[in-house]
Amino acid sequence: MNRIRSWILPVLALIVFAVIPFTASFYYQQIFFYIFLFAGVGFAWNLVGGYAGQLSLGHAAFFGIGAYTYALLAQHIGVWPALLAAAVLSTVSAAPIGLICFRLRGPYFALATIAVAQLLLVLATNQFKDLTQGAAGLLVQGMVSDPSLYYWVALGFMILAFAITALLATSKTGYYLMAIREDEDTAQTVTINTPLYKLYALLVSALLTGVGGAIFAANLGTIQPNDVFSGAISNQVVFLSILGGTGTLFGPLVGAVILEFASDWLKNALTGVAWLGDPNAFAFFLYGLLIVLVVMFMPAGIVGTLTKWWKGRVARVQSQRTTAAGV
Amino acid sequence: MSNHNGRPLLEFDHVKKHFGGLFVTNDVSFSIHEGEVLFIIGPNGAGKTTIFNQITGFVTPDEGDIRFEGRSIKGLRPYQIARRGIGRTFQIVKPLANMTVLDNVVLGAFAHTASKHQARKEAEEILALTGLDRWRDMLAGALPLAARKRLEIARALATRPKLILLDEVCAGLTPTEAVETIQLLKQLRDRGVSAIGGIEHVMRVVMEISDRVIVIHHGQKIAEGTPQEVTSNPDVIEAYLGSKLEV
Amino acid sequence: MFLQTIINGLLLGALYAIVGMGLSIVFGTMRIVNFAHGQFVMVGMYITYTLFTVFGLDPYVSAIASFILCFLLGMAVYRLAIHRIVRQSDMNHILLTAGVGLMLTNLAQMVYNTNQLTINLSYSHHDLVIGGLRINIAYLISFVIASVVAALLFWFIMKTETGRAIRAISQNDAAAALSGIHVTRTTMLAFGLGIAVAGVAGTLLLPIHYVDPSVGDAFSLLAFIIVVLGGMGSILGSAVGGLLIGVIAQLASYYLGQSYSDVLTYIVFLLVLLFKPSGLLGRSRV
C-alpha cells in the first residue's frame, strides 16, 4: 500500500512531463530543458553532497569535462559515441580528483573542490586554448535534428539520473553513504570502507554530471570555458539541491522547478524596471537571499521539511491510536 | 582464575604509544580469551580508551603487536579490523543522529548481508533484545542518554562481532538503567559474541560481570586478576587514592 | 629581473596578506567559514571608488571609511544571519555565507554594472628607482599602509583586552563564557573586525587592481588559500602566506605568462592542503 502510494507522485509527474511539449511553446520547452538538466545533475550531486555529506563546490569540473569531451569528439566519432566518451572521461577524471580531495574533511574538502574546478577553468581558457578555442568559443555538434527534441533528451537524462541515484540511495550503499555523512569513525566501526564508498559515490556522480554537461553543450551549440567550468554552475547545482532538500530523493527536482520558474518569472516581471538596474542581477540577488533564508530557517529544504512534518503527524496519529486502544 | 577455554582471541603484546613526550601506553600486555569478559579499570586519563583505540585501529601503536585470532591487526584501518570481528562502542556516544534508531542498527547488519530485507529482520531482533523497539522510528539524535548508549551496543552487535569492546556503557546511567545494561551484556553471548572487553568506572558493573580485570595507571598495567583480587591489591588502592573506589 | 620580480611580488603580497589576515580572524580564530570574504573586499573597493569619483577623496584617506562601513556591515551580517547558525555545521556556514556573497555580488552589479572600474591617481604611474630596481609609488604606499594595518591588527589581537577575549573564545568558548567574556558580542566584534580589514584591503587594492562584481569570488578563494598556506589561526602566518602567494604569482606571471599565476597558485594550494595541512607556519589542526 505504502509502496504504491509512493509511486503516485512520480508517475503523475511523468505524465505531465510527457504532455508538456505538445502544449508548451519552444520558450517553455527550453525552461523545462534546464529544469530537467539541472535536476539530473542535482540528483548526481546529491549522492556526494547530500547522502555522503561531502560538500562538493566544484562539480563544474565534471560538467565541463563532459561538455568539452563531447564538443571535441562529436564531429569525429559521432554524437552518441561522443556522449559515451564524455561519460567515461568525466568518471575517470573523478578518480584522481576524489583521491586528492577526499583526503580532506569539512571546509578543506569544499575548498579543494573549488580549487580543482577553478584550475580546470583557467587551464581550459588559457593553456589548452588550441583545443578549446578559449573564450572565443567552440562550436558544438547538435545531438538531435530538431531543437525541440532536446526536451526529451534532458527528460531521459533526468530519469536515468533519478533511477541510478534512487537505486543506490535506498540500498546498502545509501545507508553507508549516510553513515559516512553522520560520523566517519562510527561508519568505520561497522566495517564501512569509508574512502572507497566516498570515491564510489563521486565516480557515479561525476559520470552523470559529465553526461549532463555534454547535453548542455549540445543544446547550447557553442561553448566557452566559463559556460561550463564556472563556479556559477557548481553553485547552481548545490543551491537547488539545498532548496529542495539535500539527502532526499526528490529534493533536486523540486529545487530545480522552483528556481527555474522563479528566475524566469522574475526576469520577465522586472525587465524595464529602470531603478533596479540589471533585472538579471536582481534575480540573483534574491536567489542569494533565498539561500540565506533557507539555511537559517529551513536547512532540511522543502522536501526534507515536508517529510519531517509528515512523519511527525503520522507519529502523533499512531501514538493517539495506541493511547486510545490502551484506554 | 577465569572461566575461559583455551586460546587467546585478542593479544595485546608489549604495546607502547606516546603522544609527545608522554607515554599513554607503556609496555602494556594482556589478552582476552574466548568466552571471557575482561574489564579495564583505572583513574581518569590513565590511557584506557587509547588501548581500545589501538585495538580498533584509530591509533597505531609505536611498538609491540596486536593480534586477533593469532593474526596481527596492527596498522590495519578501523574498518578492516571491524571486518575481522571486533565491534566497539564509543565513550562519547556517536549516534548517527539523522538516521532512525532502526536504520542505525540496519546499518550494522549490512556488514554481513546486502539484502535490505535480511538486514531489517536482524535489526528488529536486536532492537527487541536491547529494548529499543519502542523508539524504533525515532531519530537517533533525539534519544535519551541511556537509550543512546544501548543503541551503540545494538549497532555494534548487528555487525556480529566475535569480540565487542564497550567503552563506559554504564557511565551516566541511573542504577536501574545500569542493571538493565548488565542484563543485556549477559545476553550478548547468545548472539554469538564470544568475548567482551570493557572500560568502566562503575565498579558494581565490573564486579558483577567481569571474569578478569586489569588496572591501568599512567599508561602502565599495575595489576591483573579476578575482580576481588584486584580490588584488594594495595597498588591499586594506592593508585585510586584521592579518587574514591566505589565498591 | 629576478630581484625586480621578487620585489613586485612582495609589494602585491602585502596586499594579499591584508586580505588573508581579515579571514584569519574570522575563519582561523572564530571558526566561521566565511565564503563571502572576497565580496567584502569588493565592497571596500566600491566604497573607495565611489568616494574617489564623487568626492575626489584620495583612496588612502577613504581607507578609514572602508574600515568603519565594513565593520558595521560585518557586524550586521553576523547579528542578522550568521549568529543563528554559528554553532551549526561548516556546511551551513559555507552555504549561508555563499548566499551572502551572491547577494553582495549582484547588488554591486545592480548599482555599478559589470564594467571593470579603475581609478586614475596622479601618482600611480610614477616609479621610485633605487639601484636599478623600480618601485611603483601606488604599490609602495599600499605596502606601507598594509604593513601598518598588519602591525595594528597584530597588536590589537595580542595586547588588548578585546583581543585576549577573542583568543580565549577561539581556544574554548565555554571556558571563555565562564570567565565572564560575552561570547556573542565578542564574536560579532571579531567578525566585524575581520570584515573591516577586508574592506581596507579593498581600498588598498583599488589603485592597482580593477573592480567589477566578479572580483569577490576570486578574492574569497585567494583569502582561503592564504590562510591555509600560512596556517590556521595564525595572523602572522597569514601575512607570510600573503607575501608568498604574491611572490609566486609574480614569478609565474613573469617567467611563464600571466595566466600561469592562477594555475600555480591553485596547484600550490592543493599541494599544501595535501602535504602540509597545518600550513607552512601553523600548528597542527588535527
Layout: helices, strands, pairs:
The complex is a heterotrimer of chains A (327), B (247) and C (286).
Chain A: H1 2-23, H2 26-51, H3 60-77, H4 79-101, H5 106-127, H6 129-132, E1 138-139, H7 150-169, H8 172-182, H9 184-189, H10 194-220, E2 222-223, H11 225-228, H12 231-244, H13 251-270, H14 279-297, H15 301-326
Antiparallel strand pairs in A: 1-2
Helix pairs in contact in A: 2-7, 2-8, 2-10, 2-12, 2-13, 3-4, 3-5, 3-10, 4-10, 7-10, 8-10, 12-13, 12-15, 13-14
Chain B: E1 8-19, E2 22-33, E3 37-41, H1 48-55, E4 63-68, E5 71-72, H2 78-84, E6 86-88, H3 101-109, H4 116-130, H5 145-158, E7 163-167, H6 175-187, E8 195-199, H7 203-209, E9 212-217, E10 220-225, H8 227-231, H9 234-240
Helix pairs in contact in B: 3-4, 3-5, 4-5
Chain C: H1 2-29, H2 37-55, H3 59-85, H4 90-112, E1 127-130, E2 133-136, H5 137-159, H6 161-171, H7 173-178, H8 183-205, H9 215-230, H10 235-255, H11 260-275
Characterization of this structure:
The complex is a heterotrimer of chains A (327), B (247) and C (286). In chain A, 80% of the residues lie in helices and 1% in strands. Chain A is built from 15 helices and 2 strands. The longest helix of chain B has 15 residues, at 116-130. In chain B, β9 and β10 (220-225) form a beta hairpin. With 286 residues, chain C is mainly α. Chain C has helices at 2-29, 37-55, 59-85, 90-112, 137-159, 161-171, 173-178, 183-205, 215-230, 235-255, 260-275, and strands at 127-130, 133-136. A two-stranded antiparallel ribbon of chain C has the order 1-2. Chain C is globular and about 60 Å long. The A-C interface holds A 53, 55, 57, 100, 103-104, 106-108, 110-112, 114-116, 118-119, 122-123, 125-127, 231, 235, 238-239, 242, 276-278, 281-282, 284-285, 287-292, 295-296, 299 and C 27, 33, 81, 84-85, 88, 90-96, 98-107, 109-111, 113-114, 213, 217, 221, 224-225, 228, 257, 259-260, 262-263, 266-267, 269-270, 273-274, 277.
- Class by alpha and beta content of chain B: alpha/beta
Q: Which two chains have the most extensive interface, and how many residues on each?
A: A-C, 43 and 46 residues
Helix content of chain B: 25-40%
**Helix amount of chain A:** over 70%
Order of helices and strands of chain B: EEEHEEHEHHHEHEHEEHH
SSE series of chain A: HHHHHHEHHHHEHHHHH
| Annotation, overall tally of beta strands of chain A | 2
CATH topology title of chain B: Rossmann fold
